[in-house]
Amino acid sequence: MNSKPSGTAGAFAGWTTRRWLRAGVSATLMVLAVLGALGGWAMWRTTQVTTSLVERRSPALIESIRLEEALVNQETGVRGYGLSGRQDFLQPYTEGLADEKAALRRLRPLLRDDDQARADLDAVEKSAGIWQQRMARPVVAASREDAAKITSERAGEGKAAFDSLRRAMTRQQTHLENERTAATHELRRAVTLRNWMFATIAAVIVLVAVLVFEGLRRGVTGPLAQLGLAARDVAQGQFDRSLSGTGPADLRRLASDVDSMRLRLVEELRFTEAARRLVDEQAEDLKRSNAELEQFAYVASHDLQEPLRKVSSFTQLLQRRYGGQLDAKADQYIDFAVDGANRMQVLINDLLAFSRVGRVHNDHQTVDLEAVLDRTLGDLSVSVEETGAEITHDALPTVVGDPTQLGMLWQNLLSNAIKFRSPDRPPRIHVGAVCDEGVWEFAVTDNGIGIAREFQQKVFILFQRLHTKDAYPGTGIGLAMCKKVVEFHGGTIRIDPEYKLGTRVVFTLPALPAATAAPDRETQP
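^ thats the sequence. predicted structure below, dont judge the formating
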């Protein structure tokens, strides 16, 4: 007795491959989404820190240094002019003013979001303004004599003001340097975090790929391979091999269905084997019965010949000796007896010939149908001449068969075409031959009275007649014999239902391996 799975295992036992795949893909996408978000955040953080360092911190420090250089150039120019009185010493001051304005114009936007840096810049500007107001502008605006006097009088005050300016610029640059150093450290941490993040993402992706591969192997490809191996064993004849499934629910159901099919096949094979044995037994019985019937028909036909000949001989002798001496009714009775004996003789001969097909005449060899047809036309020459029949034929091939039986085939088909001619026109008969995919198809076409569609199968049955013996003599065995000969040679025979201008009998015979279609020509008899 199988125990039912419980807990988590029981919950997952009913999951199909599609559900497992959906769950696995969803989980993988969620993990990849989280990892992608973390990786994006790491990239964004690295970019943000890099941008802050490259576009704000470092440029701000550079501009602060340029501002300091501009102020130092101003101080150098003012001091040189105050000491020497030479105008060319004012050029550094003039350039320093321009550089100061440019540095301040570039520095202010860089410090827009940094309150401490803005406060430091304000202190620098304030100290620079005090120095320029108390020292630089008065000296630059004075003459050489006054400039030297002002420089001498305000040397101490000017030095104190510029030292204060230097201290403000030092504080500013120190603060900017610290911020750039902090940004550099933060960038390194962000890059390290980003690298670790991407390494983790790569490791998780590899892990997910391994898990997916292993899950597919255990849940799909493995069970399918096991099922395929078991199915191949069954296909090779190991019908007792049970097919058990593992993995998802749908694969287990598939294995169960395949195993049910195997059991059904086993039952069908058992039934088929029993039926085959029964058919073999019946075929053997039928073969024995047919042989006995053919032997009986042959013996009966052969043994009936002698008494029938006596009846025919004595009735004919009675007709010759007493014909005309008795009354008309007696002469009629004698005629009936002679005619019946003759027809019985013909019927017994036809039965004898029919029973010999495939039994007595069974000498298979290569047969030239052209020569067989020529001999048949020679045998029918009297009928052809009396009826004015015109018989043409295509070039006929060589086939494997019994020449006697094939001669009987032509004899019956051509004699029927002549016998069942139309009363208002002479017979026109053509024998055609076409090879198609290793089979010769022959057609015997005439312009006679034709056969109605509803009788085109019936005419091949033994003793079946469509007309009375007074209208068309015969025993009704001819086409039945043709059918037996053709089928004995591995072919088929039929009446073409589409031909309306008479009768067209179509039959097939196997072609020789190297046989080809006959040339497109006709020959006269």
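The chain is about 70% helix and 10% strand.
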